[in-house]
Hints:
Layout: E1 2-3, E2 12-27, H1 41-62, E3 67-78, E4 82-96
Parallel strand pairs: 1-3
Antiparallel strand pairs: 2-4, 3-4
Amino acid sequence: MFAITIDTVPGFDILRVVGEVLGTTARKQNPFMDGLVREGDGPALRKWREDAIARMVALAHERGANAVVGVRFDHREIGPEWTEICAYGTAVFIVPAAA
Length: 99
């Protein structure tokens, strides 16, 4: 399944728009809370984004989509200890473009 930041998939036509999909993950730690960057923080943040993407893609698949376009990310602090990472986009059903 494609999950891309652009609004179209080159070489494919959007046959049907399924709708907005959102994947979230919350973590009890904020590796940057103390203002320092440590060596292991980057991979942890990447893993959080990957988890949010996986949840978004799973929801798109459940709804009958085979791609998500216009993918964006957001995050927010939930109190002093929790961080939420969101991945969202538009679930679509695509087919190869006619030659």
